[in-house]
């Protein structure tokens, strides 16, 4: 029996007509996209509007509208947060009167800077360094240690230019204080931490792309056997990066965009663009192989282009929509950062999808003669992947059991997952601002924010103090202090040993919130904010899962006409993503491979990572599912029996899926090589997800389960079958 050929003539579709249009005017499409790319890069990173994307980024723990944020609002009404600049001085001889006098004179000069509101320094104490009120500003609480801090408060409400000028001048004069005292000084601030994170993100992005693009080009050179074919997906990827950066630049004007969003979203766009370009160029060469002439005629090129856009374009369309649906699940969550990632991610996926079905086919037409040299029709459907499929089909149950055992074993560490929201710990251990604040917390603990803060709606300080003292005996609690907060509230500062999001701090938050009080209380702090964030995410997660699951099911049903295949795809993806998260917990929470990957474990996983991995990982997994299913369905509709369709589908797509997976691993390897902790965790998670999915799931589990189910793969209730006959999306 002759193998069914998906290259048989088919009725012209909308995508086919688009392919024909591209074939008629390929250089117009290429020129238009080149102009668009130049504009995108000029606006997003060239600063033609006065500022670049990286100058508009922010950083901070993810927040939601909650008890913790309401408490912060109450505090801000009475104690508005000021922009500050802090200098630590070490090696000063504070027992020498002349040295102290010279330092005090230099410190007064800091207060003369325009935009500075006040300067807090032990050198300016009226009663000298022995004044008890300045002990928190002295290292060890005494002048003998030779260390002190100076804190500069700026006038609130300064515009960005005035603030930057004031900070720069104040920093210069602060460091002059240390020089005058023949000591060493270092300066830090929240804005400097944010700048350090954003600049590191920009550096990581450039380094990641600098690594990914050459390596992906090299891999595709061996895949395609030529420079021209290998370069086409790269060109499409570069254009997609420009579109991604421009979309992020636009979103930065609507919402505060976290610095980590840029790497996550941009590299996703890069990876998808390369995958889609690989698929499109491969299909074009396959279609071009059906030509009659050694040098393809314009009609043959046009026919190959039309067929490529109709088939590979359809696959890209389905794949892009499934990834977009997965990312759209992030829009359900309350946290603004998750919504920002969701909206930006969807836009980037759409850009990659449009580039793949317009620009890349146009490039194929322009380079058709060069591509035709390697476009030789394959006479056999037997190869490595078809033999793998046949081997799996002989023992499907054994394969299913073996693979599931491996995946469950990998997923087991997720049962002990702990989540955290790091601050300066996001930076490398030797980053100057991380070192600065770790030293500040160690030497001047009184200046650090309390781990837990309670805002009590009472004007009676004594009553609030009496109520708060019951928590003094809680594990890890080191000190409790009460101070008036305006005329109607009291502020209770609770200091807890360990990190701000430690188990002790979180337990204390839970206990305080559950303890009755004769007045209204609001609990805040980093631990409280994390608890509220995770509670909000957990409450919205079922709706996100339902949206993504339903959307993916409907899309796969419209593609396959089956209800079994979509359900099976969803279940397999859940198992593989659980395994990927298990790898992340084993590495980052338990501290394995620290030296190899270049990080220091904080004993937990960043709180956003599991949700982002589920969204991005699910989208990428469905990406490969669509690649494989589209060809299996194509062969099945052309008359192949179930097992034969699976074998042919795996043979035709196995090389593409493997190559695409290798390329995406290279791209996300840029995440792993990055310096920002959350980006590194995302990189490892997505690399693990892609490797697991493209090997164990796509090459073994899918053919095994489809073989076991047999004709049931294509089952659907009669009403749904009629619905698919009417509305199903086919070629």
Automatic annotation (TrEMBL):
Residues 596-708 form the SSD domain. Gene3D superfamilies: Multidrug efflux transporter AcrB transmembrane domain (1.20.1640.10). It is a multi-pass membrane protein. It is found in: Cell membrane. The keyword Hydrolase does not apply. Pfam families: MMPL. Keywords: Cell membrane, Membrane, Transmembrane, Transmembrane helix. The chain crosses the membrane at residues 30-49, 217-249, 261-281, 316-337, 343-366, 397-416, 541-558, 570-588, 608-629, 656-678, 684-701. Belongs to the resistance-nodulation-cell division (RND) (TC 2.A.6) family. MmpL subfamily. This is MMPL family transporter. It comes from Terrabacter carboxydivorans.
């Amino acid at each position: 029996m002759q193998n069914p050929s998906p290259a048989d003539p088919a009725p012209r579709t909308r995508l086919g007509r688009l392919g024909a249009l591209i074939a008629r005017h390929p250089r117009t499409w290429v020129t238009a996209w080149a102009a668009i790319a130049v504009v995108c890069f000029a606006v997003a990173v060239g600063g033609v509007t006065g500022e670049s994307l990286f100058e508009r980024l922010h950083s901070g723990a993810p927040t939601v509208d909650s008890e913790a944020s309401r408490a912060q609002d109450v505090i801000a009404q009475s104690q508005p947060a000021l922009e500050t600049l802090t200098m630590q001085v070490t090696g000063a001889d504070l027992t020498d009167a002349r040295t102290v006098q010279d330092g005090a004179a230099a410190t007064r000069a800091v207060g003369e800077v325009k935009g500075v509101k006040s300067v807090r320094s032990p050198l300016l104490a009226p009663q000298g360094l022995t004044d008890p009120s300045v002990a928190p500003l002295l290292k060890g609480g005494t002048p003998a240690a030779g260390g002190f801090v100076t804190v500069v408060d700026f006038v609130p409400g300064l515009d960005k230019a005035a603030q930057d000028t004031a900070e720069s001048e104040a920093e210069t004069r602060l460091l002059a204080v240390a020089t005058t005292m023949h000591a060493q000084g270092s300066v830090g601030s929240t804005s400097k931490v944010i700048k350090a994170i954003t600049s590191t993100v920009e550096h990581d992005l450039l380094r990641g792309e600098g690594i990914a693009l050459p390596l992906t080009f090299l891999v595709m050179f061996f895949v395609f056997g030529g420079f021209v074919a290998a370069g086409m997906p790269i060109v499409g990827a570069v254009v997609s990066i420009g579109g991604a950066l421009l979309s992020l630049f636009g979103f930065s004007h609507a919402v505060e965009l976290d610095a980590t969003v840029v790497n996550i979203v941009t590299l996703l766009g890069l990876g998808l663009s390369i995958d889609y370009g690989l698929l499109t160029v491969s299909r074009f060469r396959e279609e071009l192989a059906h030509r009659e002439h050694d040098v393809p005629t314009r009609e043959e090129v046009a026919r190959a282009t039309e067929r490529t856009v109709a088939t590979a374009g359809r696959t890209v369309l389905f794949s892009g929509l499934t990834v977009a649906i997965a990312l759209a699940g992030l829009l359900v969550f309350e946290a603004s950062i998750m919504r920002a990632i969701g909206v930006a991610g969807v836009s980037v996926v759409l850009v990659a999808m449009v580039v793949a079905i317009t620009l890349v086919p146009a490039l194929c037409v322009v380079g058709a003669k060069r591509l035709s040299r390697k476009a030789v029709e394959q006479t056999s459907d037997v190869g490595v992947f078809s033999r793998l499929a046949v081997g799996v089909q002989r023992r499907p149950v054994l394969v299913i059991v073996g693979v599931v055992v491996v995946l469950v074993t990998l997923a087991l560490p997720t049962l002990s997952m702990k989540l955290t929201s790091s601050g300066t710990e996001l930076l490398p251990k030797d980053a100057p601002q991380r070192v600065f604040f770790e030293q500040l917390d160690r030497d001047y603990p009184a200046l650090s924010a309390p781990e837990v803060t309670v805002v009590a709606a009472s004007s009676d300080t004594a009553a609030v103090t009496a109520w708060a003292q019951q928590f003094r005996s809680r594990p890890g609690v080191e000190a409790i202090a009460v101070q008036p907060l305006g005329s109607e509230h009291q502020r209770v500062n609770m200091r807890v040993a360990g990190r701000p999001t430690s188990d002790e701090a979180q337990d204390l938050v839970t206990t305080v919130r559950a303890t009755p009080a004769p007045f209204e209380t609001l609990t805040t702090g980093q631990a409280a904010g994390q608890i509220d964030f995770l509670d909000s995410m957990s409450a919205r997660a079922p709706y996100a899962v339902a949206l993504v699951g339903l959307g993916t099911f409907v899309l796969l049903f419209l593609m396959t006409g089956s209800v079994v295949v979509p359900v099976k795809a969803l279940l397999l993806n859940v198992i593989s993503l659980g395994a990927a998260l298990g790898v992340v917990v084993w590495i980052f929470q338990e501290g394995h491979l620290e030296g190899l990957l270049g990080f220091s474990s904080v004993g937990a996983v960043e709180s956003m990572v599991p949700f982002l991995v589920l969204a991005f990982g699910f989208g990428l997994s469905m990406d490969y599912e669509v690649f494989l299913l589209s060809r299996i369905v194509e062969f099945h509709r052309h008359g192949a029996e179930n097992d034969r369709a699976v074998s042919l589908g795996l043979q035709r797509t196995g090389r593409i899926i493997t190559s695409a997976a290798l390329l995406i691993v290279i791209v996300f390897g840029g995440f792993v090589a990055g310096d920002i902790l959350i980006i590194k965790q995302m990189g490892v998670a997505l690399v693990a997800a892609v490797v697991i999915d493209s090997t164990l799931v796509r090459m073994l589990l899918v053919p095994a389960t489809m073989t076991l189910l047999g004709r049931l793969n294509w089952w659907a209730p009669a009403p749904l079958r009629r619905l698919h006959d009417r509305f199903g999306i086919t070629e």
